[in-house]
Amino acid sequence: MKVGNLVSKYNVPGPRYTSYPTVPFWKIQQWETKDWISVVQKGLGLTQEKEIGIYIHLPYCDSLCTFCGCHKHITTNHKVEDPYIEAVIKEWSLLLSAINEPVKISSIHLGGGTPTFFAPAALERLITGILALAPLVKGAELGFEAHPNSTTEAHLKSLNNLGFTRVSFGIQDYDNVVQQAIHRIQTFDQVKTVHDLALENGYTSISHDLVFGLPKQTICGFKKTVEKTLELKPHRISLYSYAHVPWIKGTGQRGFDENDLPSGSTKRALYEMAKELFLKAGYVEIGMDHFSLPEDELAIATNNKALHRNFMGYTTQSSPVLIGLGMSAISDAWFGFAQNEHSVKAYMERINKNELPITRGHELSLEDLEIRQHILNLMCHFDTEIPKKSFIHFGEIIQRLFPMIEDGLVNIKDNSISVTEKGIPFVRNCCMAFDAYLRNPVSKPTFSLTV
Predict the structure, then answer these.
(1) CA end-to-end span of the chain, whole Å?
(2) Which of 111, 286, 328, 331 is the most buried (most CB within 10 A)?
(3) How far apart are CA 78 and CA 120, in angstroms?
(4) Cβ atoms of residues 107 and 129 within 8 Å
(5) Number of domains in the chain
(6) Smallest Cα–Cα separation from 228: which of 115, 148, 142, 116?
(7) Ranges of the chain with pLDDT below 50
(8) Do 105 and 61 belong to one domain?
(9) Does 20 reside within a domain?
(10) How far apart, in whole angstroms, are the C-alpha atoms of residue 427 and residue 229?
């Protein structure tokens, strides 16, 4: 079957599988703090040094990008910086007091929102406040997401002095027509300037994030974006599929005509064109939407089958506990998930009451844990093996995968299931065959399209 026909057949709403179960199916509407802490302690028990990875959500942005599906707060009032920083440090302190045992930090990642909305001095206070309460492990990875227009050399220097060596620049597309449609204006020269400054200031891993499937995107225009990206040769490139989810409150995804979005087949052609150019330039394909230089740790982890996937995408960090700090941040303790209050106001109110600001979550059953591992295997390595003693029925999985097997997208050998090279664009569809929560029809719009 031709690629265009396959896209038409399999381009259905489905999870991105940065977690399993996915957020819409979490069962706990309000975690009791003691119960969540018990899950975190159980996750910490899987590591020798009680290691915790930290994701810090910095939600503020000066303006709204109309492609964004993140939880954010739009403001030009920078007086919000200090109270928010103090609240995040206090949340970390409250969590450590509740855990009541020494821990070490394996990684720190600043996301948003726009982390570089915050002044360098504010970010310094944040990181020094976090590290004053728990030390880093040797070789800890520290990185942040950066808007090229608001990232200064002072940002880069301040964070590098604190141990940050990774930075991810949100590029999306260099085409001016697309930039106008998504309200994200930045020139190649602006990006080149901040990219070069990062190299000069000690950053050894620079990533550029591109998005395909944006409104008004064309093959010709996006090819120019890819070629400009290759001029700078970042260590990593994320090539994300635009997730159109305008029904989620606050995304801002009503800022353009939906007729301006590329068709499913065109959207896939955008990815395949970019992939071909990246591979020709010497990059290695990582998972379903990342590329890296062969010497990069992502490529090495892929070769060693040590690649991991979490709410931040593909990573070499496999610490079983990732704590999210800040408004709307999600925590993953392997045996369970929790999410913080969705609004800055509610988040700050809970912190001011000396409460951990967690709301909904999920504690994984034994069946959840097994399915989670299979989906993680497929998303990272495109294969998995179902053991003889299993919570899932091999025959039922095969039955649900039968169309993909017929179309040459999935192979079966003994108790092993693998995604073919042809099937990689449809790996999310393969994972859906394992997903116990999708066996009942979803009654309202929940997920973006899979391809």
Answers:
(1) 16
(2) 331
(3) 12
(4) no
(5) 2
(6) 148
(7) 247, 249-250
(8) yes
(9) no
(10) 26
Assess whether 398 and 277 both reside in one domain.
Answer: no
Instruction: Examine the domain organization and report whether 219 and 289 are in the same domain.
Output: yes
Q: Strands 330-332, 383-385: parallel, antiparallel or unpaired by DSSP?
A: unpaired
Judge if pTM exceeds 0.85.
Answer: yes
User: Is residue 249 domain-shared with residue 387, that is, in the same domain?
Assistant: no
Two tokens at 35? Answer: 């119960």
Question: For tokens 């073919």, what's the residue?
Answer: 420
User: What sign does the dihedral 159-161-166-171 (CA atoms) show?
Assistant: positive
Q: Which of 363, 380, 400 is the last residue of a domain?
A: 363
**Ramachandran bin of 426, using left for φ above 0, alpha for ψ from -120 to 50, beta for the remaining angles:** alpha
**DSSP result, 331-371:** EE-SSEEEEE-SSHHHHHHHHHTT---EEEEEE--HHHHHH
Q: What are the CA-CA distances from residue 250 to residues 30, 66, 180, 246 (Å)?
A: 22, 10, 20, 8
Which range marks the domain in which residue 433 is found? 366-438
75: tokens are 């403001």
Nearest to 55 by CA among 117, 125, 145: 145
- Give, for 225, the enclosing helix (H) or strand (E): helix 219-232
